Amino acid sequence: MFAAENGLKSDPRLQGISEAIRVVPHFPKQGIMFQDITTLLLDHKAFKDTVDIFVDRYRDMNISVVAGVEARGFMFGPAIALAIGAKFVPLRKPRKLPGEVISEAYELEYGTDCLEIHVGAVQPGERAIVIDDLVATGGTLSAAISLLERVGAEVIECACVIGVPDVKSNLWIMRFIPNDMPFRDSAGSMASHFTSSWSHAKLIIAVKDRSVRMTMRGADFAGKDDT
Ligand SMILES: O=P(O)(O)OC[C@H]1O[C@H](OP(=O)(O)OP(=O)(O)O)[C@H](O)[C@@H]1O
Ligand SMILES: Nc1ncnc2[nH]cnc12
């Protein structure tokens, strides 16, 4: 477990980070508890602590690419990239990048969206991490991983500040997540997007007063799906 391995479970920084994230009920629509990281950005200490947690983890992992997901991944990714000596690669929504791109469509709760990367931004064999503010269903991270793998990068981990439970897949996932994993709902929601692209990737969620790393390798989930 990430918390145990890294001593983060009792990391005093996590509470401050948690408290700095505002939760806005019923935004942008009824029933959504919106996790608003703009209040975290206003709090210098909490913002720095958030970046530092990821920097602490990735600075000695020979990462050369920090890929940030538009829009909120852009708020954390560049600071992490600068601190660990990596380049920052924006994964943008459609028709924002002016050069040649490759695209990856993904499903949202309602409808679809798409991420794009500039051809040539990443070289084959580079070691990459993906940064975003939040993971819900995991569809966005799955698309980000696919894009990076299509240009030959090795996606080492994905890191998000917040994990939110995906209500639709809670029942499905609860069976697969060990009881001692403190963020079962969120971690499990990733399983609903389990694809071959996850086979190389790990997920880190630092949220509220707890942190979790889920290893998304096939053996952890595939084969246990008896739905
Ligand atoms: O795990 P998922 O279900 O894919 O959802 C997570 C994504 O949703 C939010 O972005 P959004 O698409 O709302 O775009 P924005 O950052 O431009 O607001 C969030 O910042 C993540 O990127
Ligand atoms: N609960 C939530 N808060 C903020 N952004 C989100 N994106 C998807 N779910 C979200």
From TrEMBL:
* Xref: CDD domains: PRTases_typeI
Indicate yes or no for the key word Protein biosynthesis. no
User: InterPro entries given for it?
Assistant: Ade_phspho_trans, Adenine_PRTase, PRTase_dom
GO CC, sorted alphabetically, is: cytosol
GO biological process terms, alphabetically, are:
adenine salvage; purine ribonucleoside salvage
Q: Describe the reaction catalysed, as an equation.
A: AMP + diphosphate = 5-phospho-alpha-D-ribose 1-diphosphate + adenine
Query: Which top EC class is named for this enzyme in its record?
Result: transferase
**By its UniProt entry, which PANTHER family does this protein fall under?**
ADENINE PHOSPHORIBOSYLTRANSFERASE, ADENINE PHOSPHORIBOSYLTRANSFERASE 5
The keyword Cell cycle appears for this protein: no
> What coarse category fits the chief subcellular location reported for this protein?
cytoplasm
Residue ranges of every copy of the Phosphoribosyltransferase domain listed in the record = 42-165
User: Which HAMAP family would you find in this protein's record?
Assistant: Aden_phosphoribosyltr
| Keyword tags | Cytoplasm, Glycosyltransferase, Purine salvage, Transferase
E.C. designation(s)? 2.4.2.7
Q: Any idea what this protein is called?
A: adenine phosphoribosyltransferase
Single GO MF descriptor: adenine phosphoribosyltransferase activity
The protein's location, in the record's own words, is: Cytoplasm
**Annotated family:** Belongs to the purine/pyrimidine phosphoribosyltransferase family.
